[in-house]
Amino acid sequence: MAGERRGPAATRARVLAPLLLLTCCVRCAAAGGGPSNIILILADDQDVHLGGMVLTRLPLHCHAPLSSSPLPLLPLPLPPLLPPPQFTVTPLCCPSRSSVLTGRYPHNHEVRNNSLSGNCSSAAWQQGPEASAFPVFLGKQKYQTFFAGKYLNQYGKKDVGHVPPGWDQWHALVRRVQILRMLYYNYTLSVNGKEEKHGDVYEADYLTDLITNRSLHFLDDRSPQHPFFLMLAPPAPHSPWTAAPQYEKQFADVKAPRDGSFDKAGKDKHWLLRQPVNPMPESSLNFLDSAYRKRWQTLLSVDDMVEALVQKLDSIKELNNTYVFYTSDNGYHTGQFSLPIDKRQLYEFDIRVPLMVRGPGIKPKQTLQAPVLNIDLAPTILDISGTNLSSVNVDGQSFLPLMAPSLRNGTARPFFLVEYTGEGHQTSDPSCPKLGPGLSQCFPDCVCEDAFNNTYACVRTLERQHDLQYCEFADSESFVEVYNLTSDPHQLENIVKKVDPAVLQAMNQRLIKLQSCQGDSCRSGAVGEGHVLIFLGNASCWTRRFIPCVRFIEYAA
């Protein structure tokens, strides 16, 4: 029964408290005996930059084990969390999820967007990258595997009987039609390859709760002789933001954050960011505030999911031997640069995602300073499982050494790639005919969130005090955006005209190499380990390798 654990009063006692327990209540003793279990929770469109992880209240301190009594709470308002720097390598559902599954950049798994023609769950995907996704290797390590929720946007559109290799239990959302209201209710699942239709009865059909309850049954029925892996992919907080009945009236006074780049004109940015009406009309503000509240409401059921899983792991004596990962496929925006709601953009609010981990060997209350990418999840999970990573074709790298240095040695990457292929329609959007064809995701106020030429690639340098982003668009302007996020964290000023052309050339060359990288070459530093890249303008400088007019300052690793 989808809603069998529900209790409205519980909302007031805790909001995302179990999520925080993943990081602040870690038991540090390393697992003994056999391989560790692993759980991956992948939310849909959950941002971290705009408060997507900060709801009404947070626990003041941790309980271990998790108790059923109310947690001590901090009153509002709260300062924003300082999350670890995790990024998605592409800010859109299907290509991002494909990167999670394969550990590869989009240019290597070749999923470009959410459509079949964009290779989302296509025959080419199934015969190629999917056949070597990380669950296949977990099966070889004798893991019992379970999937429930949203897999890939086009999964099951042509063949509901297809079960990807590596999964023992399969409960995947079928996306035969593009009707968003069928995401939380009235959906179809592929249950081990057989079609299962659902209605609109909360107790039986609400998808987030159904995922939770089936995962708990799996844990009850598992064999204790082998480790387990669960991947749970709830629909929250994706639109249409359908909350569970007991949470529909929560956060009545909450509004989207008005700071940073909210409702700022996108001057000196790509043309798509220059076309929104600024300031935003009242109708758009009301719409995005409503969306913001509803997103939080749907996340309360995800909070319930995490709580139930932690309690179950504790009850079956597996909590100390299980790694739990919580993350999202991409970020989200609500009013930034006057864009109403969506993802797909190169900015922090769309590419930063939450990441919380608990498990054996991880010290409590630590925050990683090194950047972690969603392509790192697959090699990290395989590293935990004992798989020889040299036998796996991935672009990412395990961050187990960063989380638990007592278990592994490793190094952090100095820079990485973000890439996106824009989507559009061949004909003009009825909501915005004056802008012509080639656009998509348009709103009634003639604000379009995507276009064919919203295709870009960025190289991001994130080391110590140097936080830089260089992006090139595939359009008729060959448009370039450059940001120094150390001095401009909200990316308000495109400094491309203020940077030494030699530095731009260096970043361009680095970007070219990353766009064609594969495997080891995606992980190797173009400037070598132990160096920091500094922009010097026209100052005299020396060169190292292929990068002109850039100085490198050595530091102790």
UniProtKB/TrEMBL annotation:
This is N-acetylglucosamine-6-sulfatase. The keyword Signal applies. PROSITE patterns: RHODANESE_3, SULFATASE_1. Residues 148-179 form the Rhodanese domain. Residues 1-31 form the signal peptide. SUPFAM superfamilies: Alkaline phosphatase-like (SSF53649). The conversion to 3-oxoalanine (also known as C-formylglycine, FGly), of a serine or cysteine residue in prokaryotes and of a cysteine residue in eukaryotes, is critical for catalytic activity. Keywords: Calcium, Glycoprotein, Hydrolase, Lysosome, Metal-binding, Signal. Its EC number is 3.1.6.14. GO terms for biological process: glycosaminoglycan metabolic process. Its cofactor is Ca(2+). It comes from the Eukaryota. InterPro entries: Alkaline_phosphatase_core_sf, GlcNAc_6-SO4ase, Rhodanese-like_dom, Sulfatase_CS, Sulfatase_N. One of its GO terms (molecular function) is N-acetylglucosamine-6-sulfatase activity. One of its GO terms (cellular component) is lysosome. It comes from Cyclopterus lumpus. Belongs to the sulfatase family. It is found in: Lysosome. The modification 3-oxoalanine (Cys) is found at residue 93.
